[in-house]
Structures are given as structure tokens and as C-alpha cells.
Amino acid sequence: xxxxxxxxxxxxxxxxxxxxxxxxxxxxxxxxxxxxxxxxxxxxxxxxxxxxxxxxxxxxxxxxxxxxxxxxxxxxxxxxxxxxxxxxxxxxxxxxxxxxxxxxxxxxxxxxxxxxxxxxxxxxxxxxxxxxxxxxxxxxxxxxxxxxxxxxxxxxxxxxxxxxxxxxxxxxxxxxxxxxxxx
Length: 183
Ligand SMILES: CC(C)(COP(=O)(O)OP(=O)(O)OC[C@H]1O[C@@H](n2cnc3c(N)ncnc32)[C@H](O)[C@@H]1OP(=O)(O)O)[C@@H](O)C(=O)NCCC(=O)NCCS
Known about the structure:
Elements: E1 6-9, E2 15-19, H1 26-39, H2 55-67, E3 71-78, E4 81-90, E5 99-106, H3 115-130, E6 134-140, H4 144-152, E7 156-166, E8 172-181
Parallel strand pairs: 5-6
Antiparallel strand pairs: 1-2, 2-3, 3-4, 4-5, 6-8, 7-8
Helix pairs in contact: 1-2
The chain binds coenzyme A.
Coenzyme A is lined by residues 40, 42-43, 104-106, 111-117, 139, 143-146, 148-149.
């Protein structure tokens, strides 16, 4: 799916562009995700786990997400750089198509400017338009900033998975599941 390009004004007065990444933005997407993964242990991978992903593979991923009928990817561009990304994925099948999942990550330098909130407004609007009944996400224990954002948009914790993440130093962290009832 393609998100129609939109300009948003950030809390610092700067302008950001929200759009689905273009295939030629694949190198920028790789730079962004490696940076984001190096700044927090709350994301799925360590940055070096992206080293084996080539630009060609990333281009294929961008192309497939643009064409996927069940996925809406929105990236945030500031001064031509990708500084954040979010994805809304609609589940399929008769038993699960009432649900959709969301995921988000923004580069630290751009936290607190309202990008996360603006992305959630867009994903919730798209889910509403699609007829989604339940929006879901996961976050890792200690990610209070993310949890606060999710609660502000009506998500509530519905479950947890102990020992979901094992960090390099051996620390084990819980994963929390949240849902937002859309109707
Ligand atoms: C979580 C994340 C998406 C938030 O994005 P953001 O652009 O900083 O969010 P916003 O600026 O829209 O809003 C952040 C809000 O949280 C508040 N906040 C910040 N730290 C907080 C904390 N520790 N506890 C409670 N609220 C907090 C801010 O004051 C702000 O609220 P306000 O809009 O009322 O002022 C971003 O920090 C991020 O990408 N983190 C790293 C990756 C990650 O953890 N992704 C989620 C994985 S589940």
C-alpha cells in the first residue's frame, strides 16, 4: 500500500514529510534502521544484524511492502533523511482479519518532536478506514516512553511473555502485548 505524501509541522517548527519509501530510498532506510537499532535495545535486532542485508535486498523489501495489499509503511523524512518509520499490517484469514499490528521506531535525535504521535494518528486512521476492530503491538519491559505513547492512543496491556529478549550481557526482558479496541 502507498501512503500519499503529507507534510507535517513538528514541535520545533521544522517540516517533515510522511510517505511510503521509494525503492531508491533503500540505502537511506538501511542507514536509518542501523542507527535506530544502535540507540536502543528495545528493537528486535542489534545494528550489526543488519550488516548482511544488501541494498538490493532492501530494495526488494521496499518494493514488496509498496505492493503488499496488507501493509502500510510510512517513513518520516527530514531534510531528505529517513528519521523514522512505522508499519501497519492487516492480518488475513476469516478468523484473524479483524486484527492489525503496528510497529514504530524513530532515531533518537528526533524523539519528542511529535513524530511518534503523528504516525499513530495516521496508522489509526488507516486502520479505521480498513474496518480493523483490534489494533495490536508489543513492547519490551522498560520502554516507558513507548508505553506512554501507546496508552495515550488507547492501547492497554493484555498479556506478557517472560524472557522474550536476552541482551548481550545476559539480561532477560519481558515483552508486553497491547491491544486497542477500535469499536
Ligand atoms: C517510542 C517512540 C516511538 C516515541 O516517539 P516520539 O516521536 O518521541 O513521540 P512523541 O514526540 O510523539 O511523544 C512522546 C511523548 O512521550 C512523553 N514521554 C517521553 N518520555 C516519557 C516517559 N519516560 N514516560 C512517559 N512519557 C514520556 C513525551 O513527553 C511526549 O508526550 P507529549 O507529546 O505529551 O509531550 C520513540 O521514542 C522511539 O522510536 N523509540 C525507540 C524505538 C522504540 O522503542 N520503538 C518502539 C518499540 S515497541
